[in-house]
């Protein structure tokens, strides 16, 4: 059985709508993201989300309806499975209430419309039209509820139309109460035409048969063949601009109230009543993507490249005299535009970040200013899993939930293309900006009284120290000093001592303030203090980096011990609070860390930190109690110069070190700061390129990313006004923040400006290899260029020069990293990047693609080793036992790779396998190649090396004998494969090696299946070590076209029954809206998990062109399971009643499932 849980929810915005849903005095913005509805409000800080809800269906249409008697608008929602419902906002419960719902039960043989589903409401609010199928309109009258009922939508009526391929439609503004519909369509001869129809007859009844000869009021041809949009134009409102229709077409003028047809090369304005036409030729061809009215005469347009334009209708009174188009700046490619008022617009995008921009409508230049960016990682074309731990070969913790495993995605399209780093982590929420200042080195929190709370903040710079005082109201004031602490030099260390005293260490002295007289210690012979650390009893410091001193605080800074280091130097020092009689020292030359007895400075334990292939130096140390004392002793963390953090378990009895582990946090050393967690345990904050919070959870140490990329120094602050806070110093400011209690998904972006089609990761080279496609407009011609390049794994900087393929002809299809054998040098395996390409046009006979082999030189730049011409496009590549497997147009070919030198290699064909149609993906395990066919599902192909003079063979050993339009495949368990298709289905297939007959053995059986509702582009297997009693066994990550990332897991047998029955119980919970008005409407067991009364089983059931089921098969939806925690306690107990498990135990189990991702 299988389990699926979301890591990153869909971020692509396909549909948007402005309406007065929350309040009749305020417009809000509704966004549709796959199966999620989001409601956003405009605030002074920008757009903020007011409400978010997932529904049991993928949203295909949004429209607003204002029923008679309602002050607020209602929201009409349609799904891809022809389910429709309306909702209104309930101000008491702050939730959406379902008002009406229905399902379209049209004949299954109807062909879907060529464009996406559309829903229109006429300007008078009397009629709703849906375009779902070719040649058919669904008409729904909006009426006033009668007889005490709340329904305001009548049953849909289907109307046949002769316009089969409708490109766009819109209701026109008319003087009468009869709605008029305009259809932009393509006829059988591929000519683009415009037709208009009246929807109601003179008696107000629906016209159920559109006769082109009788009912068509306008039939306009000679339109641009690339026209895809029409804009209805309102009529003039003022008396002076009233239209006077002249029926003589030769003298008729075009008046306001018509429509504009947006073409690629010309615009056409049509006055539907006078039949007059005004045309406007564009200076260059433009592919239009979206439009939005600014006012009655001005419209904002967006094109396929993300450029914005303003269309102005030029008028003389009510007469249209011409059109004018002005080009503005570039933004994300829009799928939809929304006017938020005052020149502010929302740019919804599928291929780039969503944006809020300000357009200066008053100035002639119409400047565009970016106000807000809302990240969008859709579509995920490819991704790779970067394990940030285990770099040195120690125990690996390849877990996404800890923030250690990072997913790097190739996201977006063309100008919006980017690399995105997706990582689970802890959020850092800013609460106040204390000051703007640069050059901060360290920060410390003190209390001027004998005990907490803190009321003083010490900020250390390279040449001075500044002090800030907090009052009980939270106000902050800078003061000259506190208790006479020095302010004229850098403070290396300061903290509170007993009896209200404060210790301060600068480069020139150690001082205790608050005692009379004060006590000081200075290094000998004019030396300077380079490092220091201490607790309530001792302070350990280094002088000139070559001499160690131990000072006793109880003896007024008397020297207890000193030690000369000879030719070595101190790199870092730490005195722990948990083991007060020892100190820890890291050394430069030896690259080691030593635990010392503070009383004598004798070495207790020493550990060499370097490996054979490295010469890194320890730069910071923290020894603290991360895990509860009853579970584990203290943990020692050592930050190395190359960005690796080492950890050791420390035995309190003999200070011995064990359990060495490593994790990569960046390319430079991390600064470690200990933060209190509770009375017995602590957290460690690591500041570096990827700041992390190190903490204990469920008996293990967890590294979670923190959203503080620009942090330089941190310290805890527990003041009256800001309890439990953290002070964060950045490059240019000092601020207060609060650390989140739970992990969230965090995204970091590297804009590429090109489509990142393929991504491969090399841990050895510490880089990503990407295949990118760039498009540019040059003198009206589109130029497409493809390149292969390397980028650094941490800073995402480009390495070396890219390798460019011939423009407008060759594109990259696949990029993989592999270890291949060599025939030169010592013959060991070497790391190479394999690139498969395809040609758009055949320049040479029988050459339709290439297989390129790249190496990486000493400067970390890519260079080509070999190029092999192919007779087909190279869709995907794999490696089997040192041999290259290439999936071409119709065949899978195996090559023997022979590298004779570091710059030359040859490929020899060994065996081939003929596919059913075209392979779209392959997955290799041992000698089995799983081939995902674009039409014919999965086939397993076995490779057999030749023997006794016979050639090598690729032979099919198993197949899934159904029509499945595959998109990706991966083995997730022994003989078990996860397949995805273009209908959004997930299918788990198992090979039956123990079958009785040969047919049984060659037939792959479906063990689990479910519809995700989003097309999966890529599946990547992961290996995570789990215990025997684990709730789940994580096996793969999935990336979708909508920007979602899912964690796929297998369910151990002992948990399968409980999870399946829990899913059934949650899916069958009664809906409060479905029994509104019943006497039992206050029952705690009524809850609406999805608006619209939609059925969970239907939503997740398998569906394709050839087969449809009624419910998911042995598949558990983690999103539904985790909603159990959002239910009221009474409802949770009701759910647990029939499961044989206590509600408390069920909550604990679901919490454990949630923590996995």
UniProtKB/TrEMBL annotation:
<dbReference type="InterPro" id="IPR058543">
    <property type="entry name" value="Beta-prop_RSE1/DDB1/CPSF1_2nd"/>
</dbReference>
<feature type="domain" description="RSE1/DDB1/CPSF1 first beta-propeller">
    <location>
        <begin position="12"/>
        <end position="374"/>
    </location>
</feature>
<dbReference type="GO" id="GO:0003676">
    <property type="term" value="F:nucleic acid binding"/>
</dbReference>
<feature type="domain" description="RSE1/DDB1/CPSF1 second beta-propeller">
    <location>
        <begin position="436"/>
        <end position="738"/>
    </location>
</feature>
<protein>
    <recommendedName>
        <fullName>DNA damage-binding protein 1</fullName>
    </recommendedName>
</protein>
<dbReference type="Pfam" id="PF23726">
    <property type="entry name" value="Beta-prop_RSE1_2nd"/>
</dbReference>
<keyword id="KW-0539">Nucleus</keyword>
<dbReference type="Pfam" id="PF03178">
    <property type="entry name" value="CPSF_A"/>
</dbReference>
<dbReference type="Pfam" id="PF10433">
    <property type="entry name" value="Beta-prop_RSE1_1st"/>
</dbReference>
<dbReference type="GO" id="GO:0005634">
    <property type="term" value="C:nucleus"/>
</dbReference>
<comment type="similarity">
    <text>Belongs to the DDB1 family.</text>
</comment>
<feature type="domain" description="RSE1/DDB1/CPSF1 C-terminal">
    <location>
        <begin position="787"/>
        <end position="1126"/>
    </location>
</feature>
<dbReference type="InterPro" id="IPR018846">
    <property type="entry name" value="Beta-prop_RSE1/DDB1/CPSF1_1st"/>
</dbReference>
<dbReference type="InterPro" id="IPR004871">
    <property type="entry name" value="RSE1/DDB1/CPSF1_C"/>
</dbReference>
<dbReference type="InterPro" id="IPR015943">
    <property type="entry name" value="WD40/YVTN_repeat-like_dom_sf"/>
</dbReference>
<dbReference type="InterPro" id="IPR050358">
    <property type="entry name" value="RSE1/DDB1/CFT1"/>
</dbReference>
<dbReference type="InterPro" id="IPR011047">
    <property type="entry name" value="Quinoprotein_ADH-like_sf"/>
</dbReference>
């Amino acid at each position: 059985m299988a389990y699926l849980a979301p890591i990153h929810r869909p971020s692509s915005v396909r549909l948007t709508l402005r309406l007065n849903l929350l309040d009749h005095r305020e417009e809000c913005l509704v966004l549709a993201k796959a199966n999620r509805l989001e409601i956003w409000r405009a605030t002074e800080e920008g757009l903020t989300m007011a409400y978010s809800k997932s529904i049991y269906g993928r949203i295909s249409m949004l429209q607003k309806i204002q029923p008679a008697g309602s002050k607020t608008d209602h929201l009409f929602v349609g799904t891809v499975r022809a389910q429709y419902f309306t909702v209104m906002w309930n101000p008491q419960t702050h939730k959406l209430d379902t008002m009406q719902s229905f399902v379209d039960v049209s004949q299954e043989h109807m062909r879907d419309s060529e464009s996406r589903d559309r829903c229109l409401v006429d300007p008078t609010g009397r009629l709703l039209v849906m375009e779902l199928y070719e040649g058919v309109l669904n008409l729904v009258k909006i009426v006033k509820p009668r007889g005490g009922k709340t329904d305001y939508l009548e049953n849909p009526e289907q109307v046949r139309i002769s316009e089969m391929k409708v490109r766009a439609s819109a209701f026109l503004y008319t003087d009468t109460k009869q709605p008029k519909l305009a259809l932009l369509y393509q006829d059988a001869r591929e000519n683009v035409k415009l037709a208009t129809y009246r929807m109601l007859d003179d008696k107000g009844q629906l016209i159920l048969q559109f006769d082109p000869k009788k009912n068509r009021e306008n039939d306009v041809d000679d339109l641009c063949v690339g026209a895809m949009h029409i804009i209805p134009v309102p009529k003039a409102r003022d008396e002076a601009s009233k239209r006077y229709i002249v029926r003589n077409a030769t003298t008729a003028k075009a008046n306001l109230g018509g429509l504009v047809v947006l073409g690629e090369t010309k615009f056409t304005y049509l006055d539907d009543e006078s039949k007059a036409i005004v045309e406007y030729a564009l200076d260059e061809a433009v592919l239009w993507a979206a439009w939005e009215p600014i006012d009655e005469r001005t419209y904002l347009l967006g094109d396929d490249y993300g450029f914005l334009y303003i269309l102005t209708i030029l008028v003389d009174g009510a007469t249209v005299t011409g059109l004018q188009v002005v080009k503005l700046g570039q933004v994300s490619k829009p799928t939809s535009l929304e006017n938020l008022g005052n020149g502010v617009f929302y740019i919804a995008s599928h291929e780039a970040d969503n944006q809020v921009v300000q357009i200066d409508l008053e100035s002639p230049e119409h400047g565009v200013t970016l106000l807000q960016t809302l990240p969008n990682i859709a579509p995920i074309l490819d991704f790779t899993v970067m394990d940030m731990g285990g770099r040195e070969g120690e125990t690996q913790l390849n877990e996404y939930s800890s923030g250690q495993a990072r997913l790097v995605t190739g996201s977006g399209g063309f100008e919006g293309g980017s690399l995105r780093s997706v990582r689970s982590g802890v959020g850092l929420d800013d609460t106040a900006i204390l000051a703007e200042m640069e050059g901060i080195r360290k920060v410390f929190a003190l209390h001027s009284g004998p005990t907490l709370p803190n009321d003083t903040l010490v900020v250390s710079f390279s040449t001075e120290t500044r002090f800030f005082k907090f009052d009980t109201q939270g106000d902050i004031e800078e003061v000259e000093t506190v208790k006479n602490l020095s302010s004229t030099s850098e403070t290396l260390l300061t903290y509170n001592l007993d009896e209200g005293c404060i210790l301060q260490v600068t480069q020139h002295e150690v001082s205790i303030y608050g005692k009379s007289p004060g006590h000081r210690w200075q290094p000998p012979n004019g030396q300077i203090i380079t490092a220091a650390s201490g607790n309530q009893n001792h302070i350990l410091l280094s002088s000139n980096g070559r001499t160690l001193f131990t000072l006793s605080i109880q003896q007024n800074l008397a020297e207890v011990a000193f030690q000369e280091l000879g030719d070595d130097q101190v790199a870092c020092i730490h005195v722990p609070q948990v083991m007060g009689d020892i100190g820890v020292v890291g050394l430069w030359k030896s690259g080691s860390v030593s635990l010392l007895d503070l009383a004598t400075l004798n070495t207790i334990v020493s550990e060499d930190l370097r490996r054979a292939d490295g010469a890194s130096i320890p730069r910071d140390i923290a020894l603290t109690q991360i895990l509860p004392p009853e579970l584990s002793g203290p943990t020692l963390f050592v930050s190395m110069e190359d960005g690796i953090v080492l950890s050791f378990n420390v035995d309190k009895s003999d200070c011995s070190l064990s359990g060495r582990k490593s994790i990569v946090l960046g390319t430079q050393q991390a600064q470690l700061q200990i933060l209190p967690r509770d009375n017995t345990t602590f957290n460690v904050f690591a500041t570096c390129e990827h700041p992390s919070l190190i903490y204990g959870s469920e008996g293990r140490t967890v590294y979670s990313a923190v959203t503080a990329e620009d942090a330089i120094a941190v310290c805890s602050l527990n003041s009256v006004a800001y309890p439990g806070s953290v002070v964060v110093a950045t490059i240019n400011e000092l601020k207060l923040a609060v650390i989140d209690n739970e992990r969230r998904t965090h995204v970091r972006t590297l804009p590429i400006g090109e489509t990142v089609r393929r991504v491969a990761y090399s841990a050895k080279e510490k880089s990503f290899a990407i295949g990118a496609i760039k498009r540019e407009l040059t003198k009206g011609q589109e130029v497409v260029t493809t390149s292969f390049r390397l980028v650094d794994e941490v800073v995402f900087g480009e390495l070396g020069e890219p390798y460019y393929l011939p423009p407008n002809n060759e594109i990259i299809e696949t990029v993989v990293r592999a270890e291949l054998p060599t025939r030169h040098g010592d013959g060991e395996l070497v790391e190479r990047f394999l690139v498969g390409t395809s040609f758009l046009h055949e320049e040479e006979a029988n050459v339709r693609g290439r297989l390129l082999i790249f190496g990486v030189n000493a400067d970390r730049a890519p260079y080509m080793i070999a190029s092999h011409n192919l007779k087909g496009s190279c869709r995907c590549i794999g490696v089997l036992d040192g041999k290259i497997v290439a999936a071409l147009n119709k065949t899978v070919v195996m090559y023997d790779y022979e590298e004779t030198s570091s710059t030359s290699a040859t490929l020899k064909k060994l065996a081939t396998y003929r596919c059913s149609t075209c392979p779209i993906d392959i997955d290799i395990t041992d000698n089995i190649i799983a081939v995902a066919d674009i039409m014919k599902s999965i086939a397993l192909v076995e490779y057999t090396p030749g023997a006794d003079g016979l050639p090598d063979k690729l032979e099919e050993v198993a197949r899934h004998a159904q029509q499945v339009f595959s998109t990706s495949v991966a083995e997730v368990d022994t003989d078990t494969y996860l397949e995805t298709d273009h209908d959004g289905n997930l299918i788990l297939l198992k090979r039956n090696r123990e079958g009785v007959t040969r047919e049984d053995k060659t037939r792959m059986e479906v063990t689990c299946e479910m519809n995700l509702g989003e097309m999966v582009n890529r599946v990547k297997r992961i290996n995570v070590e789990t215990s025997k009693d684990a709730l789940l066994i994580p096996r793969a990550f999935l990336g979708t076209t909508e920007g979602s990332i899912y964690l796929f897991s297998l369910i151990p047998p002992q948990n399968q029954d409980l999870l399946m029955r829990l899913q059934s119980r949650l899916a069958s919970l009664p809906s409060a809206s479905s029994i509104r008005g019943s006497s039992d409407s206050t029952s705690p067991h009524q809850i609406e998990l999805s608006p619209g009364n939609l059925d969970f089983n239907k939503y997740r059931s398998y569906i394709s062109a050839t087969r449809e089921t009624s419910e998911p098969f042995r598949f558990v939806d983690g999103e539904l399971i985790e909603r159990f925690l959002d239910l009221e306690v009474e409802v949770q107990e009701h759910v647990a009643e029939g499961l044989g498990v206590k509600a408390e135990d069920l909550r604990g189990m679901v919490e454990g499932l949630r923590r996995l991702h």
